[in-house]
């Protein structure tokens, strides 16, 4: 057999193997990049945060704009639900469902209080149980390798006859802050920030942030609505922007994933 021809044949054979190996490596890299874990920001809370059904428009939860704040490397999973308190959110298995997919490197934004604090609601939660539920959220989030962030309840638009803004969360708001300090967990004081914005706007202009409609103004509310708890699109956006600003200070890596379209 001609030695030169044998050598050429063997070189072509090795070259084919090399090409196959390179292609296989590139395929594995593509697969890894495609299915690598994306950071998820979970949101748990009540109607002030929740995604809304079309029939509720223009009512808007402040968690809704979060879907548009980040690029494709961040997933926003808003689990907040109308009428829920810390207790009912747990009892209904909603928190268990979050824990099923919560993973290392994820974040959980926790904002409750509106329904926990009202004794006449079926969702009422005592002060002691409210604090314990918040602690459970924090501990179990940390056990998953994720980062919990507590938020005080967002302000209601409640001005007295003198034009002074009334604090409607005088007990449960501070309880969130106290719990955060006890567990050394980050806390966004949304109550304080939202109240500052309402005071700045005053009794009349602040109405433009909430779901306030005159009779006949919108087909979803033919008789009109005067809602001082839930936001319209503008109000939700304002609250969400304040939370985002604080979140980026608490977790600087998040700021690298903001969408240019926000």
**Which descriptor suits the 3D outline?**
globular
Q: In order across it, which strands form the biggest sheet? A: 2-1-3-4-5
Please write the string of helix (H) and strand (E) elements. HEEHHEHEHEHEEH
Radius of gyration: 25 Å
> How helix-rich are the residues, as a percent range?
40-55%
CATH architecture: 3-Layer(aba) Sandwich
**Which range does the strand content fall in?**
5-15%
Largest sheet: 5 strands, parallel
Which regions contain 5 or more consecutive residues with pLDDT less than 50?
Answer: 9-35
In CATH, the topology is named: Rossmann fold
The tally of beta strands, per DSSP, is 7
Comma- or semicolon-separated keywords:
7 helices; alpha/beta; 262 residues; Rossmann fold; globular; two-stranded antiparallel ribbon; 7 strands; five-stranded parallel beta sheet
Could you explain the architecture of this structure?
This protein has seven helices and seven strands, in the order H-E-E-H-H-E-H-E-H-E-H-E-E-H. The protein has 262 residues and is of the alpha/beta class. A five-stranded parallel β-sheet has the order 2-1-3-4-5, with helices on both faces. It is globular and about 50 Å long.
Helix and strand topology:
Blueprint lengths: L2 H33 L3 E7 L28 E5 L7 H6 L2 H8 L5 E5 L15 H17 L3 E5 L20 H12 L2 E3 L1 H16 L4 E4 L11 E7 L1 H18 L12
Parallel strand pairs: 1-2, 1-3, 3-4, 4-5
Antiparallel strand pairs: 6-7
Helix pairs in contact: 4-5
């Amino acid at each position: 057999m001609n030695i030169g021809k044998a050598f050429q044949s063997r070189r072509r054979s090795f070259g084919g193997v090399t090409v196959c190996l390179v292609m296989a490596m590139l395929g594995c890299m593509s697969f890894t990049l495609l299915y690598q874990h994306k950071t998820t920001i979970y949101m748990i809370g009540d109607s002030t945060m929740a995604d809304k059904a079309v029939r509720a428009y223009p009512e808007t939860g402040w968690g809704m704009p979060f879907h548009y704040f980040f690029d494709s490397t961040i997933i926003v999973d808003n689990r907040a639900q109308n009428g829920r308190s810390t207790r009912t959110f747990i009892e209904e298995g909603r928190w268990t469902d979050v824990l099923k997919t919560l993973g290392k490197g994820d974040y959980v934004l926790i904002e409750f209080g509106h329904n926990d604090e009202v004794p006449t609601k079926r969702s009422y939660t005592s002060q002691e149980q409210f604090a314990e539920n918040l602690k459970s959220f924090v501990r179990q989030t940390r056990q998953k390798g994720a980062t919990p962030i507590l938020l005080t309840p967002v302000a209601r638009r409640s001005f007295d006859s003198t034009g002074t803004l009334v604090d409607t969360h005088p007990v449960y708001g501070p309880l969130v802050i106290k719990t955060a300090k006890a567990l050394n967990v980050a806390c966004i004081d949304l109550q304080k920030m939202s109240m500052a914005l309402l005071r700045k706007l005053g009794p009349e202009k602040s109405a433009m942030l909430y779901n306030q409609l005159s009779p006949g103004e919108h087909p979803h509310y033919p008789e009109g609505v005067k809602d001082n708890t839930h936001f319209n699109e503008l109000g939700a956006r304002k609250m969400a922007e304040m939370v985002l600003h604080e979140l980026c200070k608490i977790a600087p890596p998040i700021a690298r994933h903001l969408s240019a379209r926000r």
